[in-house]
Design goal:
Layout: E1 2-7, E2 10-15, H1 16-31, E3 33-35, H2 36-43, H3 47-59, E4 63-66, E5 69-72, E6 75-76, H4 82-85, H5 90-101, E7 109-112, H6 116-125, E8 132-135, H7 138-144, E9 151-154, E10 158-160, E11 165-167, H8 168-175, E12 180-186, E13 189-191, E14 196-199, H9 202-213, E15 215-221, E16 230-231, E17 233-237, E18 243-246, H10 251-255, H11 259-262, E19 265-267
Parallel strand pairs: 6-16, 7-8, 7-12, 8-9, 12-15, 15-18, 18-19
Antiparallel strand pairs: 1-2, 3-5, 4-5, 10-11, 13-14, 14-17
Length: 269
Amino acid sequence: MIDIYQMGGNLVVLTQAEDRQAKIVELLRETGFLDLRTLTERLDVSVATVRRDLGELEEIGLLRRTHGGAVSVNQVALDATNAARLVWKQTEKAAIAQTVSGMIVDGDTVLLDSGTTALEVARALAGRSNLTFISNGLDIVAELTRVEGRSIYAVGGEYFETNRSFGGPLAEHFVRQFNVDKLILNAASVDVDRGVVCTSTPVNASIARAMIEVSRRTIVVADHSKFTKSSMSVITRIEDIGVIVTDVGSKSIIDAAPEKLRKKFVIAN
């Protein structure tokens, strides 16, 4: 069986397998992740056929296979600006922030990594006077200082305009002076298949690792879009952190993850 398409004035003939694989790529562009069951139902083929198609598409770089499915290839080389990210996934970020706020208890020292999801957490916590805050995020410090009487420490160092944060050796040295109860850590991507949390640059990864070192519990905040991206710099392994708080859009990916990793995820309502 073949399918014929009109493309740029030319007729393009696809075999049944090529047509099916083209549909897989298009579906992944729309959804970011697809599990095997969904693919077999949408394409009306066997699991073995889908696995063969995914393997061939992965070989030519059109997707990345995961446990139980596949994700689209979307390498994050550089962060988008904070201004751009502030309007992305706002509902999901607000839900994540409310769930995280319930994990913070009176008297905690809370270290907030720079980033828009951590900024939502800061907003959720700003009204609580019995917490101590530390952050390398300029927007987060500005948000926290809107309310008087807070104990706030601003991390200094080299300033990065893209995510309005401070990093580099000076920032890492500053962070290591503290003993922190909870770390709210942003991530550019969460690679469930490899079991790692990643960010876009080595500088970001280095300050993130310093934060983890001084924190008793690490809470990663990541909306579902972070599960279908790939980032250059590994921060840490998923199994070495406390928990990842995400939204319901990540559920199918989490359900397909290895059992030892599934317990690390909390889905915000």
